[in-house]
Amino acid sequence: MGTRPQMMGADGGAVLHLTIYLPTRDEMKIDLYDVSTVDEAIQELLRVHQAETRQPPLYYGHPECYELRLHDSDGIPDEDFPALDRSRKIKNFGDAGGHEYCLCERPDACPPSGDAPADVAAPAAAAKPSAAAAKAPLPNDKAFLKIFMPKSDDYTVVAIDGTTVGQDLLPTLNKKHRLQLFQELYVLKISEADRERLDLASDEIDMHTKLRPLNLHEVTLATKIFADAPQISAPAPSAVEETANVDSRSRPPPETFMFNDVTAAMFKEWHVIKKNKYGKKQQRMLGIDLNKIYNRKVGERVITSSKSTKIAERPMSGVVWVRFNQDPSEFQIYFKDSIEEIITDYTADSPYECAEIVAKLKYILSRRK
């Protein structure tokens, strides 16, 4: 195995082979014993990175500056899950026997405070140059960009480089949220602060603009408004405002959830109690996107086959209707296909989530007509 990983006991134990993607999206492999914690994994990675004199340097000696997240794809962290608990053993987070993670900087802890030891190396970015010395990012520098979806708090983090333009983001968004977005229908919007910093006349960026030179940290995907588009008045806010005072056992009205074609089609899932056709109650994760309803066991990260649940997914075309039950947290879905037709009962974790699920399904079904 080579040199024994630092911080490991002499008696060792089973060895885990970890693949960790750095903030630059570069891949790095380290070996740890299975008794190691997440915090120890970060420390070991920093040690090996420094010993191999990799570039660019990290904040050596400052594991508090970093966190580990599950790896999604292409070196990008899975933002749907929180950072790994630093005190837990790293072996607890493996997915189907594999260990792939992303090392991410913690904005509230980077760069480290100025009382670091003199011999601790740090990235050039840790130095605080004067405004005059500050320079624009190099064209080929890689960075992460947070993209908020239209009229939604949901966002996706993607990696960009000097050649990335807005239209390059759509395949990732389509894959992540199981959508079909077309570049001619969307623009990117930036914050007012970024607009002033860049001295732009508008907060909109077309889908052919190179993003890395703008040094943006977040953008919003917005529907393009055409000159001949009809003017639509804003909906009355009363339904949304009233939900602030709704009792926790009251089900909010469907108007609370202002879906549009994009947000309704985006994949989302909820924990539910499902009652099967034999009356047995089962804990499940109910997922919904534009084309399918997904049914997976709690704890499974990805639906890959029907091995774990009898019916892992159903096409949306097989949904006849959805309706509320008398209990504010319960609802029913009527499925019908060439093989069977069945009404399935579900209990959501709260009346609010129950209303959200039903509202999302009803919106999707209404667009099918």
From TrEMBL:
It comes from the Eukaryota. InterPro entries: CRIM_dom, PH-like_dom_sf, Sin1/Avo1, Sin1_PH_dom. GO terms for cellular component: cytoplasm; plasma membrane; TORC2 complex. Residues 266-366 form the SIN1-type PH domain. GO terms for molecular function: phosphatidylinositol-4,5-bisphosphate binding. GO terms for biological process: TORC2 signaling. Residues 15-106 form the CRIM domain. Belongs to the SIN1 family. PANTHER family: TARGET OF RAPAMYCIN COMPLEX 2 SUBUNIT MAPKAP1. This is SAPK-interacting protein 1 Pleckstrin-homology domain-containing protein. It comes from Phytophthora sojae (strain P6497).
